[in-house]
Amino acid sequence: MNWAMKFEQLIVLHAIVTEGTFRGAAERLNKSQSAVSHMLKNLETEIDIILLSREEYRPTLTRAGEVFYRQATRVLQQMKELSTVASNLNAKQEPEVYLAVTATFPLKPVLEIIGTIRDEYPATHIRLSRESMGGPIERLLRNDADIIIATMDSVPVELVEALYFSQVTIVPVAHPDFEPARSSHMKTINEMQGYTQVVVADSSTGEFVQSRDLLPGGLRWTVSDFAAKKEILLAKLGWGGIPTHMIDRELARGDLVVLNVEGYQKRQSQLFQMRKRDKDVGIVAQSIWEKLQM
């Protein structure tokens, strides 16, 4: 039995499913469309199972195909991990590792890990960026980042390996002298539309642009980061959501207060560490990945 061919057939099946068309799979694998179709047909013949229905424009998994594909993705992931182990056994440390971390998460835990990595792998240049909204996943999928820490919003799970990492609490706040903060009753969306909501800009530039917790029809200022946002709120010029770890002292001193706004209550944001499934992992990136789970 030709196991190398079998593995390549699984890669072809995975590409068809994730790309959605035979043409897309062919372009991704740098093969002709006829070669892709032929390899899939051979696989179906060898296992005597119709994996994909060709009745529609886009091929879809049959019921048996769904079961087979779930197992196939596990095999592909295991082969990737085995390949990584084999590569790392003889590999030198990679020259650079890029991490992208959501702006809502405190950097201290990540910096502690980077400090350890610096001592273990001094020749590797660590690049670290702070990203907002769709920025982290855009960097990852464009191969501009090796590991990201972000929410799972708009993440194509078939392309990404994700492990739960942490969570942050985000609350709507304002200065106590800001008009909506002067009373504790719940403010309706209509009431809040006349007050400026301060939001942090999405650092992504294309298809991964996101919007979250935006008041419909309201006045809005957009800033580059949470530090600027907090300064504006302290200046009594607006309101907005900020992670609690950034404003613990301001809340304790009463410099900022939590607002009671319709549809904008305290929110728990779940964060995950992510990397691409199909990207080779170097020894330094693998070490960072494992340390993030400790």
CATH class bucket of the largest domain: Alpha Beta
Helix amount: 25-40%
Q: Tell me the strand percentage band.
A: 15-25%
Note the main sheet: 7 strands, mixed
Low-pLDDT parts are none
Number of folding domains?
A: 3
Beta strand count: 11
Give the CA-based shape.
Answer: globular
In N-to-C order, the SSE pattern is HHHEEHEHEHEEHEEHEHEEH
Structural class: alpha/beta
| CA-based gyration radius | 24 Å
Cα separation of the termini: 42 Å
CATH-assigned fold name of the largest domain: D-Maltodextrin-Binding Protein, domain 2
CATH architecture grouping of the largest domain: 3-Layer(aba) Sandwich
Number of helices: 10
Average pLDDT score? 90
Oligomer: single chain
Describe this structure in words.
The chain has helices at 3-19, 22-29, 33-47, 63-90, 108-120, 135-141, 189-192, 226-234, 248-253, 283-292, and strands spanning 52-53, 60-61, 96-102, 125-131, 147-150, 160-174, 197-200, 220-223, 240-243, 257-258, 267-276. It is of the alpha/beta class. It folds into three domains: 3-90, Arc Repressor Mutant, subunit A (Orthogonal Bundle), CATH 1.10.10.10; 96-167 and 271-292, Periplasmic binding protein-like II (D-Maltodextrin-Binding Protein, domain 2, 3-Layer(aba) Sandwich); 168-267, D-Maltodextrin-Binding Protein, domain 2 (3-Layer(aba) Sandwich), CATH 3.40.190.290. The strands form three sheets. Strands 3, 4, 5, 6, 9, 10 and 11 form a seven-stranded mixed β-sheet that branches. A two-stranded antiparallel sheet has the order 1-2. A two-stranded parallel sheet has the order 7-8. Helix 1 (3-19) crosses helix 2 and helix 1 (3-19) crosses helix 4. The longest helix has 28 residues, at 63-90. Belongs to the LysR transcriptional regulatory family. It holds the Pfam family HTH_1. Keywords: DNA-binding, Transcription, Transcription regulation. This is Transcriptional regulator, LysR family.
